[in-house]
Design goal:
With about 120 residues, this protein is α+β, with helices and mostly antiparallel strands. The chain has four helices and four strands, in the order ααβαββαβ. It folds into two domains: about 35 residues; about 80 residues, Alpha-Beta Plaits (2-Layer Sandwich). A hairpin with a 4-residue loop joins strand 2 and strand 3.
Length: about 120
C-alpha cells in the first residue's frame, strides 16, 4: 500500500504522504456527507467486489434487502475475484443501510454506491 501511495503522491504532485492521506480523508468525508443527505425514493447502483469464496456474505445481505433489489448481476473477474452489480430502487435510508452492511463485512474488497 505504501508503494501505491508513493506512486499516487508523485503522479498527482502531493508534497508528502501526509498531504495525500489528508486529501483521501477529505474525499471520504465529502462522500459520506453526500450519502447521508440522501432522502426519499431514489435509484442507485451498488458495485461490490469480493473473493469467490466469500459469496455467502453477499447473498445474506442481498436477501435481507430483496425488496429494493431490482436487478442483480454476478460476474467472475478472474479465477478468484467476483464483482456484483445491484440496481436498487427504494427509500434512500434502505439503500444506504444496504451499502453500509456491505462495507462492514471484512470479506468484501470494495463497495461503491452511485446514485442515479
Amino acid at each position: 500500500m505504501v508503494k501505491e501511495m508513493d506512486q499516487i503522491q508523485q503522479s498527482l504532485g502531493f508534497t508528502g504522504r501526509s498531504e495525500l492521506v489528508r486529501s483521501g480523508i477529505r474525499l471520504l468525508l465529502q462522500d459520506l456527507r453526500e450519502k447521508t443527505q440522501l432522502t426519499g425514493a431514489i435509484t442507485a447502483v451498488v458495485v461490490v467486489t469480493h473473493n469467490e469464496e466469500n459469496e455467502e456474505a453477499v447473498t445474506k445481505i442481498k436477501h435481507k434487502f430483496s425488496p429494493i433489489v431490482k436487478t442483480h448481476i454476478h460476474n467472475k473477474m478472474n479465477k478468484t475475484n467476483c464483482v456484483e452489480l445491484f440496481l436498487l430502487e427504494g427509500d434512500a435510508a434502505d439503500i444506504t443501510s444496504m451499502t453500509r452492511e456491505f462495507q462492514r463485512e471484512d470479506v468484501i474488497k470494495s463497495v461503491k454506491l452511485v446514485t442515479l
